[in-house]
Amino acid sequence: MKSPVVVTIAGHRFTLRSDEEERVVREMAAHVDKHLRELQKQTHTADTQSLAILTALQITEELWKERRRHMELKKRVRDKGHALLEFIEREGRV
Questions:
Q1: Is 7 within 8 Å of 25 (Cβ atoms)?
Q2: Domains of the chain, residue spans
Q3: 2 vs 19: CA distance, rounded Å
Q4: Is-contact 31 48, C-beta < 8 A?
Q5: Which residues of the chain, if any, have pLDDT below 50?
Q6: Which of 2, 34, 89, 91 has its CA 20 to 30 A from that of 59?
Q7: What is the DSSP letter of 2?
Q8: In this predicted model, what pLDDT tens digit does every residue of 53-77 receive, in sequence order?
Q9: Is the overall model pTM greater than 0.90, yes or no?
Q10: φ/ψ (deg, to 5) at 14
Q11: b or e along 49-69 (b: 16 or more beta carbons within 10 Å of the residue's beta carbon)?
C-alpha cells in the first residue's frame, strides 16, 4: 500500500507515495538532496532546474556503474560455476 511521505529536497517540500518503507524514502530523498547541494556548491548556481538535471545525470551515472559492476559480477560467478562443474565432472571420471 502506498503511503505518503513528506520530504524536503533543495528547500522544497514534496509529498511522495511509495511502497517502500518511510525510512527508505527519506534516505532516497536525502541522497538526492545531498547531490543537489554538492552540485550547487561546485557550480555556484541557484537555478534549481539546472541543478535537478545535473543531479539526475549524476545519479544515473552511479546507477549505470552499479549495473555494469553487477553484470560483471554475475558473469564472473557464472564462469566460476562452469569451471567448477567441469572440474567436478572431470575429476569424477578419474
A1: yes
A2: 3-92
A3: 5
A4: no
A5: 94
A6: 2
A7: -
A8: 999 999 999 999 999 999 999 999 9
A9: no
A10: -130, 140
A11: eebbebbeeeeeeeeeeeeee
